[in-house]
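Intended use. Records like the one below are meant for learning the mapping from a protein sequence to its folded structure. Do not use them to infer anything beyond what is encoded.
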Amino acid sequence: MFSRAPFEQAGWDTALKGLANATGASRAQLLAIGECHTLFNWMTNADDGYVEDFLAIEGHRADVNYRVAASSAPYEVVWEKHYDLVRAAASNEAYIEHVRRWDGEHGAQMVLANDPGAFFGLATINTKSDGRTTEKHRQVLSDIGPQVMAAIRLQRAIEHQGADLLLGSLDALRTAAVLIDGMGRVCSVTNAADELFAPDTLQVRAGMLRAARPDIDRGLQMRIGLALASRQAMPSEMWLQSSHGPLLVEICALPRQEWNFGFAPSAIVTLKAPRGFAGDQGPRLSSALELTRAEGEIVALLAQGHSRQEIARMRGVSAQTVSSQLRTIFQKAGVNREAELVSIARAVIEMAGR
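Structure written out for the chain above:
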């Protein structure tokens, strides 16, 4: 059932119900927790309101959820014996009320993966009438764990393939876009967006899209978080001021399938700059003069009238570095002076604008 789950409609729900049946439990659960929030929390036969209640008490936190606190190494089964030890040391009444309200106090679980930024867990949930787990039922959970993780990896590969197709389409349209996954991490960056990145505006750091100014970055992260949490397609706008003009940043949620593991793009950040920005003309000049992308951007900035010192500041390098790059550019373009280079660059831009 789990090997077929990524390919079938409601395949994961069917597989989890099969696991619950094989372990004598009323429900089975597949959970993923990111660095800052729950990626998904799927429980079979869960009543309406369960997930909302779980999120309201911040059930992903180890100091709240005795199941999370009792977690062990991957593929090691944990059950009521371990829950009792955690609860005896420090019980959280909010979570205990939560599991009793939804009749799911007992059960067994295992960590499937504890990767940086994401924790995957599998559990069987026993009601009061189910009673505590048995050794036989825990063995079933132990046996199936590696197969469930293999299916998750397959699901991840499928979602990444979809992300690659979307990236290709956006690149073909010359759209400046950043794709964000369910964990808030950058999946992909189009070439047009990469050209707009700068030390004084936006950059990708540690896998996250970050703004240079801390106050603007807080607003950016808040908007990305809201897009991931709400899954609503209404875009949120913010403006960034850079040394070469304003940059419009739009954050929008992408439609998500019910069984989405957070690897596929869940939000899109699009960047828009006024025409004439170096990022618009840099690739064209790179192609016309047989330059690298970075060299093309430098020529575009020169054509806009920026000095070498200003270009160095915009690009976050020293003026000596820019001068060194210009010597290489002069040689490639077959010119000896900056004025000649600017004249050729403006001619190329003018020709392309006709």
